Structure formats: C-alpha cells, structure tokens
Amino acid sequence: MSVTVVSALAVKSFDAPDKKRCPDKAEFDLVTVDDFSVVRLILEPGWRWSESIKPLEETDYCQHNHLGFCLSGVLEVETAEGIRSKIRANDTYTLPPGHDEWVVGSEPFVAVEFLGTASYGRPTSHGVHARI
Questions:
Q1: Which of 50, 49, 31 is nearest to 40 (CA)?
Q2: What is the DSSP letter of 57?
Q3: Domain for residue 4, yes or no?
Q4: How does 107-124 read in b/e, with b if 16+ C-beta sit within 10 Å?
Q5: What is the per-residue pLDDT for 2?
Q6: How far from 106 is each of 5, 42, 112, CA to CA, in Å?
Q7: Structure pTM?
Q8: How many other CB atoms sit within 10 Å of the CB of residue 4?
Q9: Residue 127 domain-assigned?
Q10: For 10-68, what is each residue's pLDDT tens digit?
Q11: Domain count of the fold of the chain
Q12: CA nearest 99: which of 113, 86, 117, 80?
C-alpha cells in the first residue's frame, strides 16, 4: 500500500494558474501544489468530450481517471458499456477510463479535479497522466 505525504506548505490560486489550456469550448486552469496537480475545469454549454477533446487525445473514449468536485452546472457521463450518470453542483465524483461526457443545459460545468486532468486537453496524451 502506498502512502501519500504532503511535504511542504503550498498555496496557489486558479486566478494565476501554472498552466492554462483552452481547447474547444473549455478552459483548464492547472496548478501544482507540493507534488500534486489540481485543475479547475470550465466546460461551456455545447462542450462534449467526443467532439472537443477526442481529436486531441486520439482515443475512442476518455482514458483518464477523474476524481473531482462539481461547483456548478451539470455534466452527463456515459461509459463505453452504456451506463449513464449526471454530475451536479456539490457532487463528488470518480470516473474510470472509458467514458464520454457532455455539458447539459445552458450553464457552464465548473469543477475542481484532483486526479486525471494534468494531461487533459494536451495533444496526443492518449490518456497518459503527467504532471503539468
């Protein structure tokens, strides 16, 4: 069993991210605190992984693991097996590899993710995770 240890005090703001990625209809604000990458996702109405990110990732489905917390908006997720779920404000979520996802309604989906998105939106990451 591995143990995760925080080794330093670190504070950063999404107002001044270490890296910003802006693929189609999305904004990813990435920060690294200590050895941990955290991202704020802002996905605009009409955003869908299979239309906006799939051409960058070059995989049939999103291959990232996600652990996050939704601040606002609604995101619908469908696995490769056809299982669907919606993520709404104040939901904590995990998503395994092998899914499509899209914004529902006219409000942006805003979330903070703690796993899986340091490589998100990076061309040809093929779902491979990396530090920002």
A1: 31
A2: H
A3: no
A4: ebbbbbbebbbbbbbbee
A5: 75
A6: 40, 13, 20
A7: 0.86
A8: 6
A9: no
A10: 999 999 999 998 888 999 999 999 888 899 999 999 999 999 888 877 889 998 889 99
A11: 1
A12: 80
CA nearest to 107, candidates 68, 67, 75, 66: 75
Q: How many residues does the chain have?
A: 132
Q: Which amino acid is at 63?
A: Q
Pair of tokens at residue 15 = 């107002």
Q: Distance between CA 79 and CA 84 in Å, rounded?
A: 7
CATH number at residue 67: 2.60.120.10
- Residue pair 118/130 in contact by the 8 Å Cβ criterion: yes
- Give the residue among 37, 40, 26, 38 at the shortest CA–CA distance from 102: 26
DSSP 76-95: EEEETT--EEEEETT-EEEE
Quote the tokens at residue 92.
Answer: 């904590």
Token representation of residue 77? 């997720």
Residue 23 structural domain: 19-115
Are 28 and 21 in contact by the 8 Å Cβ rule? The answer is yes
